[in-house]
């Protein structure tokens, strides 16, 4: 099987949010799609190990914040590479509450859904949600997963549905510097060794010291 075929599927970059009791929480996702138009129904895929999965199950609701190409890429790292069980991700990310759901402010649109059904796979839960509210937040173009990889040079969190399809592809065995927290690969014009000591990862905002030579 040629896993490169999966790269031709279309994905976006989303922040899936819900409530952990009275505390907002969420995770980064790349798999969300409209299933029907009337009534409007959305499907999302969330890994079993993601704390957000358990919170959606308990609350019966979820929201999708659709990120745009001008959204701060650090949001992807904040929600994608640490657990909401241990960290309040919204401490560093601005949000509003629409239809009683937390929505990331730095996005281009949002959808609020009530869970109406679900399907379990070996690794992920596919939640079906009836759309209860939706709105456009900005005129920014939505960020595609291709843009995230090819322009921002971001990598998939290990729990992402596309992780196997993208991160196990063998690459050229040349020296490169990769963030050990979020797998961001530095591809700047300045040699990594010559970067200032206060350089931080553009995705997860960790210091230069966490980068490893590969």
Automatic annotation (TrEMBL):
Residues 174-214 form the Rubredoxin-like domain. Keywords: Electron transport, Iron, Metal-binding, Oxidoreductase, Transport. This is Flavin reductase (DIM6/NTAB) family NADH-FMN oxidoreductase RutF. GO terms for molecular function: FMN binding; iron ion binding; riboflavin reductase (NADPH) activity. SMART domains: Flavin_Reduct. It comes from Lachnotalea glycerini. It comes from the Bacteria.
């Amino acid at each position: 099987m040629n896993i490169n075929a999966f790269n031709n599927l279309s994905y976006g970059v989303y922040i899936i949010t819900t409530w952990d009791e009275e505390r907002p929480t969420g995770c980064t996702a790349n798999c969300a799609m409209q299933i029907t138009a009337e009534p409007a129904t959305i499907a999302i895929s969330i890994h079993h190990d993601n704390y957000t999965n358990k919170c959606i199950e308990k609350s019966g609701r979820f929201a999708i914040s659709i990120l745009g190409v001008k959204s701060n890429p650090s949001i992807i790292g904040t929600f994608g590479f640490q657990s909401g069980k241990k960290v309040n991700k919204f401490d560093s990310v601005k949000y509003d509450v629409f239809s009683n759901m937390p929505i990331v402010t730095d996005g281009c649109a949002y959808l609020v859904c009530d869970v109406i059904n679900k399907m379990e796979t070996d690794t992920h839960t596919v939640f079906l949600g009836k759309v209860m509210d939706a709105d456009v937040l900005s005129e920014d173009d939505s960020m595609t997963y291709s843009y995230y990889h090819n322009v921002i040079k971001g990598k998939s969190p290990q729990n992402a549905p596309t992780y196997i399809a993208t991160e196990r592809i063998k690459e050229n065995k040349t020296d490169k510097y990769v963030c050990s927290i979020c797998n961001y690969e530095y591809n700047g014009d300045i040699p990594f060794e010559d970067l200032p000591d206060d350089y931080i990862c553009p995705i997860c905002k960790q210091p230069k010291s966490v980068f490893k030579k590969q």
